[in-house]
Amino acid sequence: RPSSVMALSQTIQLQDLQIRRLKEEKTVALERINEIYEAVKDLRNELEKIITP
Known about the structure:
Elements: H1 3-51
Coiled coil: 5-50
Keywords: Coiled coil
């Protein structure tokens, strides 16, 4: 195979790896956002208990 085809193949493989890693990072970030959202919701409920007579 010509070297240009090899180089292109390697580039595609590298990009596939990068895409997979980004998807994993996105999943982790979304899970973290969800945790923060739930924590804020709990805080709000606790504050309402204190504020509301």
